[in-house]
Amino acid sequence: MYGLDAVGFAVSFCFLWPVRSLPAPDAVPEPVTGFAPGLRSIAAGFAYARGRQDLLGSYLADLAAMTLAYPNALFPFVAADLHAPWAVGLMFAAPSAGALAVTVVSGWMGRVRRHGLAIAVSAAVWGLLITAFAWPPTSRWRWGAWCWPGRPTW
Question: For the chain, what is the HEC assignment?
Answer without folding.
Answer: CHHHHHHHHHHHHHHHCCCCCCCCCCCCCCCCCCCCHHHHHHHHHHHHHHHCHHHHHHHHHHHHHHHHCCHHHHHHHHHHHCCCHHHHHHHHHHHHHHHHHHHHCHHHHHHCCCHHHHHHHHHHHHHHHHHHHHCCCCHHHCHHHHHCCCCCCC
